[in-house]
Amino acid sequence: MAAFFAQQMDFIFFFYGLAFVLLGASCWAFGTRGHGGRFWLAIAAFGFLHGALEWLDLTALIIDDSPLFASARTVLMLASYLALLEAARSYAVENGARAPPQWAVLLPVIPIALIGYFEGSVLAGIATRYSVGFMGNLAVALVLLRQRRQTKGLERIFFTAAVTGFVLYAMATGLVVPAAGIWPADILNYDSFAGVSGIPIQLVRGVIACWISFSVWGIWGQRAAEQLESPQYTRYVAQQFTATLVAMTMILGCGWVLTQYLGEIYKRNVERAARGDTELISGRLGSEIARTEGMVDLLARSSAIAGGSLGAARDVLQRHVRAADASAGYLLDPSRSIRLAVTASGLALPPGQPGPPAATGGMVVFNGAARRLEYHVERVLPDGGSVVLQRALSSLESDLNRFDGTYFIADAQGTVLSSNRSDLRLRQLWPSSKSDAGSIFPQIIMGGAWTKLAGERVFAYQEATNIDNLSLVIVEPSREIFATRLLGIVITFFASLTALVYILGRERVVRDAVQAEKRLSLQATAQELRVKATTDPLTGLRNRRQFNQALGEEILRANRENTPLSLGIYDIDHFKAVNDRYGHAAGDEVLVQLARRVREQVRESDLLARWGGEEFVILLPGASIARAAEIAENIRKSIADAPVRGGIFVTASFGVAQYRPGETATQFLENADLALYRSKSEGRNRVTVGENGQSSSSAA
């Protein structure tokens, strides 16, 4: 399982960073909408910075790391954890608790910077996690725990989840650190955690980050629903939370499958290329060996070698050494002492000395004195002696040094005889025992295997040659695999971004619709209240309060524009008798029908209002007293001539007056009221003009 997750670290870093970016977005929405202010905005900064940090770790995994880049990531990590300390401090300040000044949050920067300068970025990062990371996460957890006390229901559950998440993240990020030679990093570190659990700590942190993000999202949704007090929005928030959780799970799952698929495609291409390169090099080596073996076979069958004179044997041996492009040739007696030896330059070696090691089946050796790879092949002669050719494989090595990948030629014990990596020559290719920790590869390569070379993940392909003691290993770098997998990660990122933008945009649309609906409802309520405040509830006419307001405005206009202004007051004659005979319900119906009839008689610019009881008033802007009296007379006739409510006949008495410049509204009304009184006292069912008019009265 550890090997599987090691191949997925690029997607794990992406997932890890995305979870924190989601946390940042949730807290930003929380803080900018008035829920907790600077506390949530500081956590948003932590989320965005920490998400960027994990994506930079992904970048380092893909394009290789450097001390400067590692230091930059340590600075970014420190900044993200300082944001957590600032979140806790700002909450304390906003709630009146004792808190250090803002500059005190930056105090940990000094010792961590000194550690980074003298000890390097790794120990600086470990110090950051042990101190600021651990304490910052616990401080935020304590603040959330305090806020939890003021909540209930589902919001309380989300707060509990967020508290748990930050406590777990404090332990995951503040206690499990990169391996280092200090306590407790030498005991509890990334490697020991992965060795015990089988999963990398980065995956655990990513899952915790998702837990925190969705917990905060839930808190924000509950607060927003509580603020709007809308059942529709509350239902949508619940649906949105579920939909987001399901959508992100599906997108990340499908994105991982796509990333894995793209990576597997490239892996197969790498494996195919490695096999092809191995076959190519093996074939080239085989041709070099075959040429030498062919020459030694001819040499062994030569009569000059088998039983001729030494002079003849020397000539034959010299010709075959040159023809085979060998470096040396030997004729050995049965005791393996040199009878005859020549070099490619024609130099004869002294006889009687011990011959080279036996190479009956042929073997490749490394000539330490000449610092080159050689092939030694030997054939036994009928007399028990043997003939040996030694050929330098310099041309083969020269060609292989231009090979793009890394190659190794190793003997049966795994010792590197030749490689285009000169620093690895004569090193042990793989462990010969469990205690062998100095080998190039951490395990024996049989066939093809994904392994590590100098800390970099590579694909190594091993193939035995037609020489019993020789193995050929080709190494293909895997950096391009990450580039191929990156395409799947990018597609997953944009799919996640699209889903989140849609979900948040949809939430905004629903929120705006609910707020617009509430505004319209409030406006309708306000309009209804205004109508009730200015309208008579029985007849639907304007009430006395509205009439007094309009009267004041029309008097000001009449004075300003020097235009006539008149008003009429009328009263239903003997209305009490109608109520006594027909009942109050019938009386109310009479008032309603008469109001409707009179409304049809007045102009749009006139104001008809119920003054009180069975008394009504008409304000006539721009009408002279004569015109007002005429309108009143028409109304009087329409009331008297037609019955109301199934045969009830009633009449009305009118008093009409014209406004005189300088008089008050009260005086204006009194003149009309006096004229009404005269109408009633003179027999009712008539129109009487006030004293400021030119006519006195008219009767039916």
Automatic annotation (TrEMBL):
Q: Name one GO molecular function term.
A: diguanylate cyclase activity
TM regions (residue ranges)? 12-31, 38-56, 68-88, 100-118, 124-145, 157-183, 203-220, 241-262, 486-505
Swiss-Prot/TrEMBL keywords: Membrane, Transmembrane, Transmembrane helix
Query: According to its UniProt record, which reaction does this protein catalyse?
Result: 2 GTP = 3',3'-c-di-GMP + 2 diphosphate
Q: Where is the GGDEF domain?
A: 563-692
Which EC class is this protein assigned?
transferase
- One Pfam family cited in the UniProt record for this chain: GGDEF
Say which species the protein is native to: Terrihabitans soli
Q: Which SUPFAM superfamilies match?
A: Nucleotide cyclase (SSF55073)
What Enzyme Commission number does this protein have? 2.7.7.65
- Coiled coil segments of this chain: none
Q: What is this protein called?
A: diguanylate cyclase
